[in-house]
Amino acid sequence: MLLSIDDVFKIARLARLGLTEDEAQIAHSQLSSIFGLIAEMQAVDTHGIEPMSHAQDISQRLREDTVTETNQRELFQSAAPQVKNGLYLVPQVIE
Amino acid sequence: MHWEIVIGLEVHVQLSTCSKIFSGAPTAFGAEPNTQACAIDLALPGVLPMLNRGAVERAIKFGLSVGAHIAPRSVFSRKNYFYPDLPKGYQISQFDLPIVGQGSLTIQVPTGTNGQTYEKTVRITRAHLEEDAGKSLHEDIQGLTGIDLNRAGTPLLEIVSEPDMRSAAEAVSYARMLHTLVRWIGICDGNMQEGSFRCDANVSIRRPGKELGTRREIKNLNSFRFLQQAIEYEAQWQIDTLEGGGSIQQATVLFDTEKGETRSMRSKEDAQDYRYFPDPDLLPVVIDDEWIEQIRSSLPELPLSKQAHYTADFGLSAYDANTLTSSREMADFFEATLNEVPNEAKLCANWLMGDINASLNRQSLDITQCPISPRQLGCILKRIVDGTISSTAAKEVFKTLWSEGGEPDAIIDTKGLKQMSDTGAMEAMIEEIIASNPSQVAEYRNGKEKLFGFFAGLAMKASKGKANPAQMNEILKRKLAG
Amino acid sequence: MLTSSLSQLGAALRSKKISSVELTQLYLKRIAALNPELNAYITVNEELSLQQARAADTQLALSHTHALTGIPIAQKDIFCAKGWRTTCGSKMLSNFIAPYDAHVIEQFNRAGAVNLGKTNMDEFAMGSSNETSFFGKVKNPWNRNSVPGGSSGGSAAAISARMCAAATGTDTGGSIRQPAALCGISGLKPTYGVISRYGMVAFASSLDQAGPMARSAEDLSLLLNAMAGFDARDSTSLQREPEDYTRNLNTPLNGLRIGLPKEFFTEGVHSDVANAIESAIAEYKKLGARIVDIHLPNSSLSVPVYYVLAPAEASSNLSRFDGVRYGYRASGYANLAEMYEKSRAQGFGAEVKRRIMIGTYVLSHGYYDAYYLQAQKIRRLIAQDFVEAFKQCDVIMGPTTPTTAFNLGEKNDDPVQMYLSDIYTIAVNLAGLPGMSIPAGFSNNGLPIGLQIIGNYFEEARMLNVAHQYQQVADWHTRSPQHIEV
C-alpha cells in the first residue's frame, strides 16, 4: 500500500492535526516505512478467524440505573481554557 | 406522469432512565449548564464507560413490542468525529451488531376524509443504543459558542425504518404511532419540546416502479407538524428541481421552521469518515432468553392488539380504536369507563372522544389530569342508558361535574334532571294538551301530520324537559290517533 | 534504608525505627539531588507527600496498618491523582491537575502508602526510550548516555537509582518490562483485567495494563496485592476472588516446566543478552526446572499487528484532547477548526502525532478490513499460539529485549527500529497474558539484562514464585548503579 502525500494531509485533517508542508514530508516518509513493516501482515491467511477485540472472552457487566454523581462543575471547570456562566466556550460553531 | 415520494425515518428516542447510559450522572431536563456532566460525561483523561442496565432493558422492551429479534450478542462501537459538544471526540453507538433487529409497526393512516383511515405496515430495519451529545448554545455570547454537556451521555434508542412511507401523512402516522408506543411501554416520556423524541426524515422521489432516487436527510424535526411540513416542502423542492432539469445531490438539510423551508447544512470540509470500530472499553452485551422472557411478560397489552380487540369485540371503528389507544392512559380510561357501563362501548367512545377530549383540550390537560374519573363518567352514562336522564341533561351533569365536582346522582337530584317516567302522569298531561287544543287535533286527525311536532313541543314544555322523549312520543301518537 | 526491601521498610516503620515522614524526606532529598540529572520525576509535591506521610504515621501509631503503610511509592504520571498535576508526559496536559483518583491511586491511598511523586514517561506512554516526554528524556542510571527504556522509564530509573522504594508502571506493549530490563529492576504486567484501568490515561484500551515495578519479585508481590482487585467502574476489570500474591513465593521449583520459544532466540538477540539468558536458564535447571522447546509461530507478526491495533485505539482515545474542557489550547486561532488543529498540533509531540495518524489511517474508509480487521484476526492467532504452548509448559522464558539499553538519540529518527525493540514483549499484551522481567545479569559494558517470564492467564503468583526463587540464588536485582551512592 503506497501512501501519498495527499493521504497524509487527509489523515491529518481527519485527526485534526495541523500539519505544515515540511512536517507532511517527514510524516510521509516515516509513515511509509511503518506501513512497510505493517505490510508483513497482509500475507497471512486469516480466513475463518474470528477477530479479537478484547483480551478476555467475557461479556459486558451492567450498572444499575441509579444516580451516583453529584454536581462538581466548579472543580471540573477549573481546568477549562475558557468558561462563562457555566458554559465551556469555543469559537462560534456554524452549521 | 406523477412522482412517488419515498420516506424513511430515523427516530431518536431519549430513554427515560434516571442516570446516563454510561455514567451515574442524572438525566433530568433543565438543570443549570454543566451541573449534570460528571467526569465520564466530560471525558476527563482516564475515565471509562459503564453500561446502564435500564437503557438495555428499555431497548429490549421496544424490540419486543415491534416483534423484532433481540440480538443475543450486540456490540458498542465508536463513531469518531470532532465536535465541541461531543466530549470524547467519538460517540459510543452501535454499528454492525445493534441490539434490536428487524421488526415492524402497523399504522392507521388518515385518508383526509372524515374519520377514514387505511392500514399500513412499516418495516423497522433496526434499533440501536447510543449516547446523546451535549448542546451548543449560539445565542448569548458574541462570536463564541457555549457548550452545555448536561445532555451528553443521555441514552438514546435510534429507531431506523425502511423507506416504506409514501407520503408525509404516512410518515406522520408512523412517527405518531412510534411516539404512542414508546410512551405506552414506558421507555420514553415523549416530550418533544424537550427533545425526547426527534425525527430525521430521509426523503427521495422517483417514478413509480423505478429505482430509488437520491435522498436528502432532514435533520432534527421535533414536532409532527414540522415533520409534515418539512417532508412536503422537501418533496416538492425535489420535484421542482428534477422537473426543472436539475439533479439531487445527497445532503443533510435543516428545516427552517420560520420560513417553512429546508436548506442545506454548510457542507463539511471533507466527507465524513466516522472510522467505526468496536469500543475496546466495552465488552459485547449478552442478553439471555431468560431476561427477554422476563421483560416480555412484564409488557402491557400493546396498542395494536388493543385496537384489534376494540374493533372486533366492541364493534368500534378503526378510527375510534386508534384514537382510544393514542396513549395507555386513554385506553385505561376508556376501559375503566366501559367497565361501569358494559356493552356501551360506542357510547363510552363518543363521550371520551367528544366531551372529555374537547374539555381537556380547552384547558390543555391530558387524560391523566381529567377532573372527571372513569367511574363518574360511567355513572353519567349509566343514567342515560337506564333512562334516568336525557342526553341533554347528561351534558349538564357533565359540565357541572367538570367545573364544580361532586357526584353525578347528587347533581341529577339537586338539579332535578330526572326524566319523567311515570306513564300515568304523562298520559294525564297529554290528555290535557289534547283537550285544550281541539282545532289542531282536528287538523292532525285530518292528515296534517306535521302538527305532531307542535304537540311534542307542548308536551316537552309541560314536562319541563324531563319527559323521556321516546316514551312521550309513543303516548302522544296513541292519544292523537284517538 | 535505601537498600531495604518493602517488607523490611514496613517492619522498620511498624517498629518505629523510622517514621514515614522521615522516610519520605529521605527519598525527597535524594530526588532533589539526583533528579536534575536523571529527570525520572515530572512532578514532586513535597507538601502532598508529607501530608500523606503524616497520616501514615498516625495510622502506624494506632497499628492500623497494611504492608505498605507509610512507604513512599512513585506513581507513573499516567495515573490521575486528585490534586496532583497529571501530565502523561505531554504538553497537552502540562497544567492538568487531576480532579479525581485513579483506582490504582485509591488502592495505594487505602493501604496508607505515600505518593512520592509522578514519574516521567514517554508521552501518552508511546515510546520505548522515554525520549518522547514533553518534560525531557530520562537518563539510564547505569549509563547516562543510555536510554532507560519506555514508556515507564521514569519509574524504572527512579527505582534503579533508589529514588523511591517502589513504583507503578503501565504496559501496553512492553512499557513495564522493557524499562525494567534496561534499568536492572523487576517489573510485572499482570493478566489484562487484573488491575483496573479507571483513572489511568488510556493509550490502547484493549492492551493497557498497570503493574508494579520494584527491585525484587517479593516487593512486586506486595505491590500487586494492593493494586489488584475488581473495580466496577472498569468494564474490563475481572471479577475474581482476591489473591495473596505472596502465597507461593517460597514454593520450590522442582518439576517446573519452562518453555523456551525458538522464536525468542534468533540471531537478532545480542550475544551478551543471549549468554545471560542462557546462564539464568541453567540456574533454573539447578533449581529443579525442566526445559521444553515450544513454538510461537505467529509471534513474529506481533509488531505489525500491534502497530495497527494500538495506534487505532489511541487515535480515538486521544480525540478527547481538543482544548475545549481541559488541557492545552493554542493561542491565536481564527475559527473552531483552527483551534482544534493548532491545539492538537502544538499539544502533542511527534511520536504521538505519528501514531494518531497511523491509527486514523487504518480505521478509515476502505482500509479497515485490510488493516484493522486483519490485525485483530492475527491477534487471535498469536493468542492461540500461547494457548497451545501452555499445554506443554508452566512458564515461558526468554530475553525481555534483544539488546541492552541503546544510546540516547540512537533510534530517534527511525521509528521502525524503535518499534522493533519491543519485539519480545508485545505478543504478551496482544494475548492479554501476564509477563514480567527480572534482572539476569549485565552486558560486557555493564548494562543490565532482563529475563522475561510469561505465565498463563492469572498465573501471577506462580510467576512471582519462579522469579523469587531465582532471586534467592542470584543477586542481580540487589545491584545498584556504580556511580550512584546508596
From TrEMBL, chain A:
Highest taxon listed in the record's lineage: Bacteria
Key words of the record: ATP-binding, Ligase, Nucleotide-binding, Protein biosynthesis
Stretches of the chain forming a coiled coil according to its record: none
Pfam families for the chain: GatC
Catalytic activity: L-glutamyl-tRNA(Gln) + L-glutamine + ATP + H2O = L-glutaminyl-tRNA(Gln) + L-glutamate + ADP + phosphate + H(+); L-aspartyl-tRNA(Asn) + L-glutamine + ATP + H2O = L-asparaginyl-tRNA(Asn) + L-glutamate + ADP + phosphate + 2 H(+)
EC number(s) recorded for this UniProt protein: 6.3.5.-
The keyword Ligase is annotated on this UniProt entry: yes
A Gene Ontology BP annotation from the UniProt entry: glutaminyl-tRNAGln biosynthesis via transamidation
Gene3D superfamilies: Glu-tRNAGln amidotransferase C subunit, N-terminal domain
Subunit details: Heterotrimer of A, B and C subunits.
Purpose of the protein: Allows the formation of correctly charged Asn-tRNA(Asn) or Gln-tRNA(Gln) through the transamidation of misacylated Asp-tRNA(Asn) or Glu-tRNA(Gln) in organisms which lack either or both of asparaginyl-tRNA or glutaminyl-tRNA synthetases. The reaction takes place in the presence of glutamine and ATP through an activated phospho-Asp-tRNA(Asn) or phospho-Glu-tRNA(Gln).
Protein name (record): Aspartyl/glutamyl-tRNA(Asn/Gln) amidotransferase subunit C
UniProtKB/TrEMBL annotation, chain B:
EC identifiers of the protein: 6.3.5.-
Catalytic class of the enzyme: ligase
Keyword check for ATP-binding: yes
Pfam families, per database record: GatB_N, GatB_Yqey
Gene3D superfamilies: 1.10.10.410, GatB domain, N-terminal subdomain
Catalysed reactions listed for this entry: L-aspartyl-tRNA(Asn) + L-glutamine + ATP + H2O = L-asparaginyl-tRNA(Asn) + L-glutamate + ADP + phosphate + 2 H(+); L-glutamyl-tRNA(Gln) + L-glutamine + ATP + H2O = L-glutaminyl-tRNA(Gln) + L-glutamate + ADP + phosphate + H(+)
InterPro entries: Asn/Gln-tRNA_amidoTrfase_suB/E, Asn/Gln-tRNA_Trfase_suB/E_cat, Asn/Gln_amidotransferase, Asn/Gln_tRNA_amidoTrase-B-like, GatB, GatB_C_1, GatB_Yqey_C_2, Gln-tRNA_amidoTrfase_suB_CS
SUPFAM superfamilies referenced in this protein's UniProt entry, alphabetically: GatB/YqeY motif, Glutamine synthetase/guanido kinase
Keyword rRNA-binding: no
Subunit field text: Heterotrimer of A, B and C subunits.
Family: Belongs to the GatB/GatE family. GatB subfamily.
NCBIfam families tied to this protein: gatB (TIGR00133), PRK05477.1-2 (NF004012), PRK05477.1-4 (NF004014), PRK05477.1-5 (NF004015)
HAMAP family: GatB (MF_00121)
Function statement: Allows the formation of correctly charged Asn-tRNA(Asn) or Gln-tRNA(Gln) through the transamidation of misacylated Asp-tRNA(Asn) or Glu-tRNA(Gln) in organisms which lack either or both of asparaginyl-tRNA or glutaminyl-tRNA synthetases. The reaction takes place in the presence of glutamine and ATP through an activated phospho-Asp-tRNA(Asn) or phospho-Glu-tRNA(Gln).
Protein name: Aspartyl/glutamyl-tRNA(Asn/Gln) amidotransferase subunit B
Organism: Candidatus Nitrotoga fabula
Automatic annotation (TrEMBL), chain C:
Domain Amidase per the UniProt entry, residue ranges: 22-464
GO MF annotation terms: ATP binding; glutaminyl-tRNA synthase (glutamine-hydrolyzing) activity
Catalytic-site annotation from UniProt: K76, S151, S175
Keywords: ATP-binding, Ligase, Nucleotide-binding, Protein biosynthesis
Membrane-spanning ranges: none
Any one annotated GO CC term: glutamyl-tRNA(Gln) amidotransferase complex
Enzyme nomenclature, EC number: 6.3.5.7
Subunit structure, as described in the record: Heterotrimer of A, B and C subunits.
Similarity comment: Belongs to the amidase family. GatA subfamily.
Protein name from the UniProt record: Glutamyl-tRNA(Gln) amidotransferase subunit A
Species the sequence originates in: Candidatus Nitrotoga fabula
